[in-house]
Amino acid sequence: MTMGVVIASHVDKIAEGVYQLIKESAPDVSITYAGGTDDGDVGSSYELIEAAINNNEADELYCFYDLGSAKMTLDMVSDMSDKPITIFDAAFIEGAYTASVLIQGGYKKEEIDAQLAPLKIK
Amino acid sequence: MTMGVVIASHVDKIAEGVYQLIKESAPDVSITYAGGTDDGDVGSSYELIEAAINNNEADELYCFYDLGSAKMTLDMVSDMSDKPITIFDAAFIEGAYTASVLIQGGYKKEEIDAQLAPLKIK
Amino acid sequence: MELTGDKAKAWLLNFEAKIQEHKAYLSDLDQAIGDGDHGSNMARGTEAVKVNLEKIAEPETAEVLKQAAMALISKVGGASGPLYGSAFMQMAKTAKETTDIHELIEAGLEGIKHRGKADVGDKTMVDTWAPVVEALAKDALTNEAITQAVDATKPLKAKKGRASYVGERSIGALDPGAVSSGYLFTALVEEVLQ
Amino acid sequence: MELTGDKAKAWLLNFEAKIQEHKAYLSDLDQAIGDGDHGSNMARGTEAVKVNLEKIAEPETAEVLKQAAMALISKVGGASGPLYGSAFMQMAKTAKETTDIHELIEAGLEGIKHRGKADVGDKTMVDTWAPVVEALAKDALTNEAITQAVDATKPLKAKKGRASYVGERSIGALDPGAVSSGYLFTALVEEVLQ
Ligand SMILES: Nc1ncnc2c1ncn2[C@@H]1O[C@H](COP(=O)(O)OP(=O)(O)O)[C@@H](O)[C@H]1O
Ligand SMILES: Nc1ncnc2c1ncn2[C@@H]1O[C@H](COP(=O)(O)OP(=O)(O)O)[C@@H](O)[C@H]1O
Ligand SMILES: [Mg+2]
Ligand SMILES: [Mg+2]
Ligand SMILES: [Mg+2]
Ligand SMILES: [Mg+2]
Questions:
Q1: Chain B contacts in chain D segment 2-31 (CB below 8 A)
Q2: pLDDT tens digits, residue range B40-70?
Q3: Which domains does chain C have, with CATH numbers?
Q4: Are D1 and D192 in contact (CB under 8 A)?
Q5: What ipTM was reported for this prediction?
Q6: Most Cβ neighbours (<10 Å): which of A23, B88, C42, D19?
Q7: Which strands form B31-35's sheet, in the order they lie side by side?
Q8: Scanning every residue of chain A, which has its alpha carbon at the shortest distance from the alpha carbon of C80?
Q9: What is the CATH number of the domain that holds A46?
Q10: Rounded to two decimals, what is the model's pTM?
């Protein structure tokens, strides 16, 4: 079971930037992202989030979001998807960074979940 | 005493995107940002963070950062600055969003600090 | 009361017209306690609903509701997208069993609650939907009842969504999603119940 | 032992040369437990130090240290920027009182600790600086002592900086900032102490 990370933000630039930040420390982890609406506005897009989930090469996905409505969209996509998906109510960037670095380091799910627990703020 | 928000990220796109996200809900708050190094790489820049602090129109600044080294740069700039600056060890985007929306709403410092307290994760 | 396919289509087209008419007002309401986009979000979403529905020559209730759900889910872009989307998706599923309006709207409310985890009193669209479901159960849905439900969101403190960030300051403001839901039900009264 | 302006300049130019030489190695070390940029960060920073110092015709200790601090602060771009920058800034301040090498490096260590809040054993550059300060107090700084301090970061678990994210997995790896600090002190031995 490989683990991957999905980043869902309300803004396209944030999603791209978080990807850029994380890839430096987790070059071998499958990280996909979705930001903003279909038109590039601030918001969230079912299609873009669905694509980020489908395009992620990992077997199991850890998803992080910035604000609540991206979570609802993630939730909807997750309801429709066959992949095991966990949506973390963790600090967005810090949580995604932590998860990615730990996956890169080969840690097990339980250990990663334990490290993410104190980052829960939502 | 007006209150403003400073956003310091390791990535230029993240800083711009967070600004974009927050401005929608806090159009009247002075929000300035700095992202990445002088050359646009991932990292932090003393000059850019100093400029974000100097260009902020508010009397008192609430600063948020993504990862620890941006905090150290904020710290250095803050040591050199006369403005009252508080660096929050809060979840980056969530903290900056919360602070900005509350400042927009006219809340007092004590109330804002109380709302930010549960977001402390660093 | 039954929701036929034709009525369902008329209802949603009326809703779209109301949203377009009150687009600026909805965004203003959202600017006060959120991010100021509820009007444009709903306008974009209902516009897409209209496009989808206009393609349906012989409307069938479940299909109309499903097309509305798909359009709202993919085009709104804000929290109201997955929320209205889940409502219509639940209604579409329920429509395969029954087209009773009370049961359909009740299913829609369940969809919203499942997605958003909000309860009555949290100052969200749930505060419009819940009293509407009760009124429909008694066959007593009127414009007055709708207005009353919408207005009752004013004194509440927001506990969900972006408005929850402003806490106390949300008191005294109408919830934008409750207001847009009000238009949905006024359209229902006009097109289906009257 | 005194740090004259000329020696300070020679020291930092030697440091720059060592960093350029080991740039790829430092980044590789950082890739293992961080983000893989320590070599390029330090290369950019010390290159800027060199540019600043080459402008100084008659080097004066405090000024040399200050110019180094400014260059590192503004050009490194990673955590090592404010850290080395604070070290040299503290040294520059102290140089106005004394140019004794032990006192200067001790002031530098205080600068690093003030900025980064790390202690001995946290697997950072502090683990090179602290034993070096002790050795200098006894006038006994050698290349062996430096290598020993740097190597001693291997078994440690990182508690500060990016490497702290990988926790246990940092055990067994050298700390990149401890290694680059090792070059700083080897350059000191070569240019000043020998
Ligand atoms: N968790 C929730 N449950 C129910 N309704 C919600 C929830 N979050 C937000 N809403 C509704 O959504 C409306 C805001 O929609 P909109 O402005 O389109 O989305 P966003 O807040 O993402 O910009 C609110 O006025 C409220 O009625
Ligand atoms: N809080 C700290 N205190 C002391 N040294 C630190 C601290 N954080 C990081 N370091 C040092 O900085 C080095 C990493 O520097 P660098 O890679 O240039 O920065 P970044 O981690 O921002 O990419 C680490 O190897 C460590 O020696
Ligand atoms: Mg909105
Ligand atoms: Mg929005
Ligand atoms: Mg690094
Ligand atoms: Mg770096």
A1: none
A2: 999 999 999 999 999 999 999 999 999 999 9
A3: 5-193 (1.25.40.340)
A4: yes
A5: 0.96
A6: C42
A7: B31-35, B3-9, B60-65, B85-88
A8: A69
A9: 3.40.50.510
A10: 0.97
